[in-house]
Each structure stands twice: as structure tokens, then as C-alpha cells.
UniProtKB/TrEMBL annotation:
The keyword Transferase does not apply. Pfam families: ABC_tran. Residues 7-238 form the ABC transporter domain. This is P-loop containing nucleoside triphosphate hydrolase protein. Gene3D superfamilies: P-loop containing nucleotide triphosphate hydrolases. It comes from the Eukaryota. InterPro entries: AAA+_ATPase, ABC_transporter-like_ATP-bd, P-loop_NTPase. Transmembrane segments: none annotated. It comes from Rhodocollybia butyracea. One of its GO terms (molecular function) is ATP hydrolysis activity. Keywords: ATP-binding, Hydrolase, Nucleotide-binding.
Length: 309
């Protein structure tokens, strides 16, 4: 593998149009530029809607960009897609096709498991998978383990993870993270990982980044952070440089930033309780007061109420 950047993004801006409103473009990423070196593990930190998933989708070649340049191992990800790139996201386990009555051993062989027997067997042990499981009869967490085994058993060079460890128990997750870290050390692989679970991650990333509203408040920066790398360093490092404490502070500051913009009239307030009543609100309230069972029988349980509708 060359010493050139594993990922190179320059002046990336990406917009999408919400369903049913083609004239209202939403800017999901704003002027993003950074480089990631081989062997790095970058943790993306940001609230829901910050742009993490959009960025990973673009890196995986799943979203065509309107402005900027995205290269993976020196290749334009849209014109010359690198075969050594793996994207693993949460939507896979919800696909009806992987919830059919398929034996796990047959499923893995159908996607080439027999070609990667040594790595496949190692992952079967790490992820604690039973080859006799049937895909339709296992839990979401077990199905997620099968997805990870399927995606990781080849020798990938860039791995994009989008919340894909959310269903794993703590033991399997820890074993998986150790395996992934070893891949970056022994093979020079690169990982970009978006998650909201920060426990047990202090020794995992080589870089962390802070995303807010589609832009990078902090570009990928070596971890552990130096106080000089970030604003509010005295607050962040007061309880020690833990990822959980830093993520908590950053997400709280993101919410405070949004609230300040709403009060100053630079952003329309759409979240939380509404302080004004529209005609639509009145109509809905009148309907529910008239028809919902709970108003007719305040002592009725929610389960009973739903079962009678």
C-alpha cells in the first residue's frame, strides 16, 4: 500500500431534497476538506443529523456529489471505485432478503466465505456465531454479527462503519474492536467509524472529529487530544480526557449553539414543545377528545386501548 492518503476530501458540499418538496434543497455537508492516512482509525462524533451518515455514504460511493472531490487511495470514488472498500451500516439487517430461512453457513458461503476460510473462521469465533443459525430465527444482534462476519472476512483496506455495533453485547463489541485495531496495525488498513456509544473506546481511535450541521467543528485530529487542539479545553479536560466526557460536552454545545441561533432568529425553532397553537393543532385535539378511548375511560390501560382500536 502506498504512503499517499487513504482518504482525501476537498471542498465537498452536498445537498439533498426532502421528499415531496423538490424546491427545498437541504445542505447536508458544507465545504468539507480533510485527509486520512493509512493505519488511522477516525471516530466521527456528532448528534443525529450532523452529517456523519451522509459523509460515510459518499465515501462509499453511494451518493453522487455536486461539488468537491472525494478520493480513496488516490482514486475518484465515483469514477474508479476501489474494490478494497467496505461499508457496513444499520440498514442491512432490516432488509427482508436477509431475514429469510437461510442457514448461516450457506449464507456466508453464498457471498464467498469459502474463499476466506481462515479469516472467516477467526471472525466466527470473535463474533460468537453459530453456523447452524437460521437467519429468520435469530435476534437483531445475532443477525448483526453475521453481517459483520460477511463484511470483514475479506482483506479490506478502508472500512466505513455507521452505527453497526449498536446491537452487539459488550463482550462481542470489545472483541471486534480489538480485531479491527489489529487490522490497522498488521495490514495498514484504515477505519472511519460513526457511533453514539463511547464506552470502552478510549484506546480505539487514532483520530477523532466533531461534526455539527454538516460541517466539521474539528477536523480529524490525533487522539488523545492536546488542550491546544480544541476550544473549551479547560471544560473538556476537567474530568480527564475521556471520549464519553468529550462527546457529551460537544453534543451539549451543539444544542446550545442551535438554541442560540433560534433565539436570535437565524434558525426556525422546530424541536421541543410548541408555544403557539395553530388551527391544525385545535382540529387534532378536538378529534382525539371526541374519539380516543382513553378520554371515554381514563382508567383503561394503553395496551387495552390499542387492542380495541
Amino acid at each position: 500500500m502506498s504512503s499517499s492518503p487513504a482518504v482525501s476530501i476537498s471542498n465537498l458540499t452536498f445537498s439533498h431534497t426532502p421528499p415531496g418538496n423538490p424546491n427545498a434543497a437541504v445542505v447536508a455537508l458544507k465545504d468539507v476538506s480533510f485527509h486520512l492516512s493509512p493505519r488511522s482509525i477516525t471516530l466521527l462524533i456528532g448528534g443525529n443529523g450532523a452529517g456523519k451518515s451522509t459523509l460515510l455514504y459518499i465515501l462509499a460511493g453511494k451518493r453522487l456529489i455536486q461539488h468537491g472531490k472525494v478520493d480513496v487511495f488516490g482514486k475518484d470514488v465515483f469514477k474508479d471505485f476501489p474494490p478494497n472498500l467496505i461499508y457496513l451500516g444499520t440498514e442491512w439487517a432490516m432488509n427482508a432478503g436477509v431475514r429469510r430461512d437461510i442457514v448461516v453457513s450457506d449464507f456466508l458461503n453464498s457471498v464467498g466465505g469459502y474463499r476466506h476460510k481462515e479469516r472467516r473462521d477467526r471472525l466466527l469465533d470473535i463474533l460468537d456465531i453459530d453456523l447452524d443459525w437460521h437467519m429468520h430465527a435469530i435476534s437483531d444482534g445475532e443477525r448483526r454479527r453475521v453481517q459483520l462476519c460477511m463484511g470483514l472476512m475479506g482483506e479490506w483496506d478502508l472500512l466505513l462503519l455507521d452505527e453497526v455495533t449498536v446491537d452487539l453485547d459488550v463482550l462481542v463489541r470489545d472483541s471486534l474492536l480489538r480485531f479491527l485495531k489489529g487490522e490497522t496495525i498488521s495490514r495498514g488498513a484504515t477505519i472511519v467509524y460513526a457511533t453514539h456509544i463511547f464506552d470502552g473506546l478510549n484506546d480505539f481511535p487514532t483520530h477523532i472529529a466533531h461534526m455539527r450541521d454538516g460541517y466539521f467543528v474539528l477536523n480529524p485530529t490525533p487522539w488523545p487530544l492536546n488542550p491546544s487542539d480544541v476550544a473549551d479545553s479547560q471544560i473538556i479536560f476537567k474530568s480527564g480526557p475521556s471520549l464519553h466526557a468529550i462527546a457529551l460536552h460537544w453534543l451539549a454545545s451543539d444544542r446550545a449553539f442551535r438554541t442560540k441561533e433560534e433565539k436570535e432568529g437565524r434558525r426556525v425553532k422546530t424541536r421541543g414543545p410548541r408555544n403557539h397553537i395553530t388551527s391544525g393543532d385545535v382540529d387534532r385535539e378536538s378529534f382525539y377528545k371526541k374519539y380516543i378511548y382513553v378520554h371515554q375511560n381514563p382508567h383503561m390501560s394503553t395496551d387495552t386501548m390499542v387492542s380495541q382500536i
